[in-house]
Amino acid sequence: MIAYGIRSVLQAVLVLLAVALLAFSMFRYVGDPVANMVGQEATQGDREALRERLGLDDPILVQFGRFVADAVQGEFGISYKQGRKVADLLAERLPATLELAILSTLLAVVLGIVLGVYTAIRRDGVIANTVMVLSLVGVSLPTFVIGIGLIYLFAVELRWLPSYGRGEVVQIGWWTTGLLTESGRKSLIMPVLTLGFFQLTLIMRLVRSEMLEVMRTDFIKFARARGINERSITFRHALRNTLIPVVTIAGLQFGGVVAFAIVTESVFQWPGLGALFVQAVQFVDIPVMAAYLMFVAAVFVATNLIVDLLYFALDPRLRNEAPAGAGGR
Amino acid sequence: MRFFTGSIVAAAAAACLFVQTAEGRTLKWARSGDALTLDPHAQNEGPTHNLNHHIYEPLIIRDSKGKAVPALAESWGLTSDPLVWEFKLRKGVKFHDGAPFTADDVVFSYERARQPSSDMKQLLSSVDTVSKVDDHTVRIKTKGPNPLLPANLTDLFIMNKAWAEKNNTVKVQDFKNKEENFAVRNANGTGPFMLVSRAPDVKTVMKAFPDYWGKDQYKHGVTQLEYIVIKSDATRTAALLSGEVDFVQDLPVQDIERVKNSPNLKVAIGPENRSIFLGMNVGAKELETSDVKGKNPFADKRVRHALNMAINREAIQRVVMRGQSVPTGTIAPPGVNGWTKEMDKYPPVDLNKAKALLKEAGYEKGFSVTFHCPNDRYVNDEAICQSAVGMLGQVGVKANLVAQSKALHFPLIQKEQTDFYLLGWGVPTFDSHYIFTFLYQTRTDKTGGWNATRYSNPEIDKLTVSLESETDLEKRNATIAKIWNVLHEETIYIPIHIQTLAYGMRKDVDIVVDISNQPKIKFAVLTN
Fold first, then answer.
1. Are the beta carbons of B9 and A85 separated by less than 8 Å?
2. Residue numbers in B near A78 (CB within 8 A)
3. How confident is the model over A134-162, as pLDDT tens digits?
4. ipTM
5. Which of A39, B174, B375, B488 suits a disulfide with B382, CB 3.0-4.6 Å?
6. Distance CA B259, CA B246 (A)
């Protein structure tokens, strides 16, 4: 267990370094930040002086080394676009993205499991079939189409929900939340639905197929034979055995939700990290781009680690060092 | 300084929908991009100046037509010495923190704007000294006679000297320094609105300054101003349609009809001080990206005239711009000193004549060239280029389009690494000299900074330089006309159109389209 932990941390560091190096080798294809940083009256001399001050003419490896040396000390530099500390910018944007990601994942997991179980048990029901058809929409429609569709319906036509932003937020320490105000909660509904819809349908379909498979196994038949009531069989025996793949998917998807909230955040003008990143790319704001990519890599590494640890909790066979040949369905 | 910064909570305290109180109203103004900084001298960029114009003020301000009108200076003029300008400052003006506005603040602000890390320094490059005569008189001495000095001052904002010193923001942000400068997010100006809170790229909240000197003159009726960034076109339009914002500064072309048809909304359309045109490498011996070797087709005037005839400007206006542009025959936008109706005429599309000209020049079979285009800078920039490729193809010129981000496109122009490109140009001084010196003059460190055509004409250079010190306006205008005559005959650029701006707003809001796309809310009118 301890050896496993150390190995995971070392792997994480390697992944982070690799991401940073890849990022730095790509930045020069994004464009020249100086083009955005000075006005049209600036002379060639002004531009070169600024390039020099920013160290943009140094070889990629030198820039990379400087970035890593600073990053180790927690120093991510100054945003070219906003002239503010990158660490402050990320910290300011983080609550918005995390709030969105956590709520979307919660929605996806809870509703996904419930609907998955329901559609598995009532395989031929009208409601179950309707849900299945709708879930196809979730799997196949791109996020931005869903987002714009929701805006059109609920903001423009019905005027129930705001079309952009976070609404009123409350500050608790450095954290900001929209959950404590009415406009904040209203503002969350559409982005959470948009971001969580794909995950929801994915988890639902996964739970359904796993359930169908488990319901066919011998131990369920024996349970029925023993006269255990149907509710108990479904939730205590069958559902439990479907959860391992669900945890894997939900965990990995959470990393994806944080990282790829970009589209949802752009559609709803959600002031999170994804929107910050899009603006940084357009401006060639290298310090922000580098720090954001490191952050996303860190989120993926961390969620993978947590998912691995959850296996231990969910599957007793892993704890007991199962003998070779045993285990596995 | 808590008073000025506030918190995000306070910012969001205003309700989600339109607020109307007895004294006045909240105006919610949405735009696709934010100001980069509140530091008035750190960035010479349109949206940045636009926001800062509400908090800070220059000595002279431009109205929506581009006309210079008094702001912090009541009057100005040349003294008997042609090198010295005198500005009479407005009396009784207060900064937002209550400090009185005096000549010291002007001297301080201009010195700050001239620092090496300032992005405004080029506008003051002709200035030798700025000095105080008395508390309400300032003199600016230039290195040589400069008839255009006042035109350069319209975006040069005045800060309070004592405030800057107290908050350690005497110097403009330097990106080498890893600290944030105080003025980036805090402000103390003399403008009609004072900063309440700012969340960059999200929202900036301002409220009317009760001691504003012009409050009787500019009865705009706005008590709170919220500047909201909504990047996505569809979402911005949706916010206007749903009544969550009152004014959208950049209404997407495809949504104009939709907004017009909405019962509570209207659209204001007007020309922008910005032309869109194609530049050709006329100076090289051989084009690097062409299949013609040993000679440069663009160096031949007949080829340039032929291409000028092949571009169907009206089709671009109709199809690409959906009517939202004004086709033009010159790269000078109307309203710029030196512009005439005559030079705005463009040749009719004549493919046969164009082909004949190309044949005469020895390019009967046409030629190929790489065509660089931005895709995130001007209205429908990439689509304009795509249609130009088709039109040029009809006369046998094969333009290989490379459309990319402005961050990749502009360096090609600055480093002269393109043979054929699209560029847009605005003229903040409203004088032809600005066009000549950046787009036509021979490239040196100080001149021709955006001239990637490699065009170099000593006669034009000499005349352009002479404009800088010619104080006799009649003589000066004659020289401008003479320069334009030569340049239009040469056809160094192929003008396409003048961009138009579309502002969408509630019917009870009246904001006139600003030719520089810097609408100032103090000129707006709210009606009930």
1. no
2. 175, 177-180
3. 888 878 888 889 999 999 999 999 999 99
4. 0.84
5. B375
6. 12
